[in-house]
Specification:
Helix content: 25-40%
CATH topology of the domain at 48-137: Nucleotidyltransferase, domain 5
Distance between the termini: 101 Å
Number of strands: 7
Shape: elongated
CATH class of the domain at 48-137: Alpha Beta
Oligomer: single chain
Largest sheet: 5 strands, mixed
CATH architecture of the domain at 48-137: 2-Layer Sandwich
Radius of gyration: 29 Å
Structural class: alpha/beta
Length: 141
């Protein structure tokens, strides 16, 4: 009788180092080719101006008050709706914390003008000296 001696098969091995290298290359590729564009939470149609300045990175970006077409106020980066009284209180408290506070009004061109004037009154009441408005560049003929 002849017994056949079978060799034990080794379990297949997965080379983890090569897989990690491939994954790192894919991640780097995706990071380089992806564009990061900031999308505003509130879509506004800004009025055009021939003196509009391009928005860029600043050392101290302004506090932004947005006014939508219905005349509702939104304050700051989180764009949470606020009432006129809350806006007034927030502006006064922010101005007390930072005397060099910059404020920018970002109003839709369909927003009621009275709401813009109301914000400007709150700014005077809070004694904020630096006020600006967001506009877009006028189209060239």
């Amino acid at each position: 009788m002849r017994f056949i001696v079978r060799k034990r098969r080794t379990a297949p091995a997965v080379i983890i180092v090569a897989l990690i290298d491939v994954l790192v290359v894919l991640v780097i590729f995706l990071m380089v080719t992806t564009t990061f564009k900031q999308q505003p939470l509130l879509k506004l149609a800004l009025p055009s101006s021939s003196e509009a300045q391009k928005s860029g990175a600043e050392d101290h970006p302004p506090l932004v008050v947005s006014i939508d077409p219905q005349g509702l106020f939104r304050l700051g980066q989180d764009k949470m709706p606020v009432t006129p009284d809350q806006l007034r209180e927030q502006l006064i408290s922010q101005a007390a914390k930072n005397p060099d506070l910059k404020l920018a009004i970002r109003a839709d061109k369909q927003a009621p003008w009275g709401q813009v004037v109301k914000v400007m009154d709150f700014v005077k009441e809070a004694k904020i000296k630096n006020l600006s408005a967001f506009t877009k560049e006028a189209s060239k003929p």
